[in-house]
Amino acid sequence: MDFKQKIYILLAGGVFFLSLSGILVKIATSPPMITAFYRMFFTVLLLTPYFIKNHRHKAAYFLDYRPLLVGFLLAVHFILWITSIEYTDISNSVIFVALQPLFTIILEFLFAKEDLRPGALIGIIMAFIGTSIISIGDFYHLGDKLFGNFLALSAALFAASYLFIGRGVRKKLDYFPYLFILYTYAAFFLGIGAYIFEIPFFGHGINNYLILLALAVGPTLIGHSILNYSVRYLPTSIVSLSILGEPVLTTFLAWLLLNEQVLLTTLIGGAFILGGIYLASIYNYRKSKMQKKAFSAKKNS
């Protein structure tokens, strides 16, 4: 087995760890705010020694208002997504959250004056059709799910917002210190939220805290770390598209482990949404490639 094959296997493992996120959130019994808080808190706790040892000179960026704002948006994203799982199926929640790349494209079109090319537009239309199919199916079977679907869609919008706003900071900071500062602010805001709403930090049971620790270690640390490691050796488009496997795998695990039934409308609508995201990802890859060529030609002229 050559090195590249090993990287593909590693990438598949990363997607698997990411797909555990919805399952772990579903079996956690703590309030959504506490689940989100401890996911970030444990992550920051585990990353702090490495940050102090290798990146402490980047601590000045804690004073930049942009990471603070982005951390707040990330905190809201987690609250919305984790709460959505209480109201709708895991499959619906992860499929709707996967819409984040399409929301990013829309934000770039509205606020950064980026071109909205046919490939991206078709992807957005397909995702809209898929969203409608799932929502109609949920309304027919159980109208309460619509609220959970709305929360998951809102979580995707906030995820796109923190990625869009954080672009300027990411250009100045390496990926690790950027994420550490972002996670720290997210944990801070989630802790403030729990305090304001008088949600206790303790007394949720040792098994629950172990689940929350697993949420920090598995999907957050291992999953995202593998994805970022894979980008060094594989095309960005491959890594981006591999993430489409997360909602598929999460849906399968929810069916296998939690006996969660999957509606036909979810399967059909999910296929439309994932197909739309695929087209949008290809569009993003081609746009990035064209920008690099244009920059290279300008530099050599």
UniProtKB/TrEMBL annotation:
Pfam families: EamA. GO terms for cellular component: membrane. The chain crosses the membrane at residues 7-27, 33-52, 64-82, 94-112, 119-140, 146-165, 177-197, 209-231, 238-258, 264-285. Keywords: Membrane, Transmembrane, Transmembrane helix. Residues 6-135, 147-281 form the EamA domain. Belongs to the EamA transporter family. This is EamA domain-containing protein. It comes from Halanaerobium hydrogeniformans (Halanaerobium sp. (strain sapolanicus)). The lineage of its organism: Bacteria, Bacillati, Bacillota, Clostridia, Halanaerobiales.
